[in-house]
Structures are given as C-alpha cells and as structure tokens.
Amino acid sequence: MATTSDLSIIVGLAIFLATLHTNILGVEARAFFVFGDSLVDSGNNNYLATTARADAPPYGIDYPTRLPTGRFSNGFNIPDLISQSIGGTESPLAYLSPALTGQRLLVGANFASAGVGILNDTGVQFVNIIRPFQQLEYFQQYQRRVSALVGDSEAKRLVNQALVLMTLGGNDFVNNYYLVPFSARSRQFSLPDYVRYLISEYQKILRKLYDLGARRVIVTGTGPLGCVPAELAQRSTNGQCSAELQRAAGLFNPQLTQMLLNLNSEVGGNVFIAANTQLTNNDFIHNPQAFGFVTSKVACCGQGPYNGLGLCTQLSNLCPNREVYAFWDPFHPSEKANKIIVRQILTGSLDYMNPMNLSTIIALDSLL
C-alpha cells in the first residue's frame, strides 16, 4: 500500500513532468471557462447598455495592443494569466464577442460580466449586466454550439476536462449591502446572517455549474474589501482599511472555503478549489515594498483621495509607471498585482489554495 510519502513523491514527479511538458514541448491546452464579475470580465459588457464598462482609454494602456478591451485592468487580467499558464494559445474570448465562432469555441469562453454578484439584486444600478444564472444559461448555449461543431461526446469531454474559474462575492458587499447607508439588504440581514445567505445562494450556482459538466473549478474568495482605494476614499480617515468591510471579507472567505470542501465531499472528488485571494492581496497590501510596489493605497488611475473616487477616465490622474502600483483603478488590481495573485493560484501552499494549487491539478490531470 502506498504511504503518504510515496504519494507525495508521485505527485511531485508528476508536477515536474507536467512542468517539463509545458515548458519544453508545450501542452495540448485544455478548454478554459470563466464566470464572475469585473475582476475576470474580458469584454462582455462592451456589448451591453451598461455603465459598468472598461472599453475606453486609459484601460488597456499596457495590453499588447495598447487599446482598451473591456478588461478592468491596465493590461492582462487574471484569466489571461491563467490561460497562459495552462498552455493556452489565447485567452478565451468574451462569450458575446462576434469573433467567438468556429475553432475558437474550443479554446473555451468567458461569461463574466462586470457589476454582478451572487444575488440578482446586486449591481442593479448597472442595469444591463449578465447575472450568474444567465451566465450559466449562456454556458448551456455554448455547449450546444460546440456539440454542433464536434459532436455531443467530444463536447462533453471538452467541458469535463476543462478548467473553470469562478469569481463572485465582492460586489454583494460593495455594490449591495454597503452601497448606501441603511441599504435594503442591511435592513433585512445582520452581517453574519447576510454572509450565510450569500454562501447558501452561491452553493446553488456552483451545484448548477457541476450539473452542467464542470469538474475542475477554481473559486476565488473576495479580496480585502476594506483596503481598496475606493473604500479608503469613502470610509478611511487615516489611511487604514475599513474595519467593517474587512469584517465582511473575514466572515465570507472562511465560510466559502468550508462550503467548497463540503461540496467536494458531496460529489466525491476535488472538483472545487478554494483560492484565498484575500490572503494573497493582504501580502502585497500590507507590505507593498516587498513586491516592488511604491503604494498599495493609491490607485494608478482615478481622482480624489487615494485616486479612489469615480471612474478611471481620460480625465483622471494617471500614474506614469503602473509597475509600482498595486491598484490600477479604485477597485481593481494592476496587471503586476494580478501576476502575484496568479502565481499563488499556480504554486501557493494549502493556506492559499485548498485542497491543492493549479500546478498540482495540472500534474494530476496529466496522469489521467
């Protein structure tokens, strides 16, 4: 019978071989699907009548084309960087993009939409956004399109073997519960009860995703919500993170991890992977100089205190060197910060990635 030590050696060898295969020979890229909010939206909202858009300069200033793409970033976002890590020739296109046809469907698709949350009433001020169950309906539509292209069995295999990224939750606090004083949800729920409600609703979304064939799903928690420049500008008097929003993240993230582990027990496998993005963000927010940042409080693009008020536009203050800013705009990390987040997704310890990191997933799946 194999011991724990034997299994560690086998997995370690598999990771080494998978890395070798990726770096030297290249891999046959698996499909990649993305669901969630503005942290992972690659341009779906460009095609919608909504104010939650990033399709004008200076967004995209450091993207290879130097043009805005709909990503809420100065350059690459988290899905782009993960896609590169798993051997993707290109990042999956926004599902609403007219270019997503033919063979490009086999790369995967990005269904994320800026402004959405777990709850349907989150982000109502943005009006026309793709809420989670609508994203899943588009995923079903996508599968029908792929079946027409390659047949039902091949389409099923592509989905079952795909990597999935899901990022939701932050907007349910900043664009719902704490959006205005005495918001409807804050009158309905105490914060602990609201978090429990969010987790129960999120579980329904993830169960539906599993029913639609997803078998490797990385689910990110919220970042340190009270430390983003937007919240510092509105709630901080001395540059300290908002204690109430930090409390919200501190309640939500551990319960999310536990819910994912419970779901894994229910389905009988390590389908859902919890990515502790709060811990990753905390690393560079509380010690920015260690990661090459000059500041983790001031956004590169914005206006007002900490450049944290309003939208990032051509009229905003714009830093000359995005590499030294942890935040690109009032809410979203810079490309450099995204690289730090993805590095932990790839290689992070159990504190960051539970029950395993992406490199281990790639290695184990290469043995199948």
Automatic annotation (TrEMBL):
Pfam families: Lipase_GDSL (PF00657). SUPFAM superfamilies: SGNH hydrolase. The keyword Lipid metabolism applies. Keywords: Hydrolase, Lipid degradation, Lipid metabolism. GO terms for biological process: lipid catabolic process. It comes from the Eukaryota. The keyword Lipid metabolism applies. InterPro entries: GDSL, GDSL_Est/Lipase, SGNH_hydro_sf, SGNH_plant_lipase-like. One of its GO terms (molecular function) is hydrolase activity. PANTHER family: GDSL LIPASE/ACYLHYDROLASE FAMILY PROTEIN (AFU_ORTHOLOGUE AFUA_4G14700), SGNH HYDROLASE-TYPE ESTERASE DOMAIN-CONTAINING PROTEIN-RELATED. Belongs to the 'GDSL' lipolytic enzyme family. This is GDSL esterase/lipase-like protein.
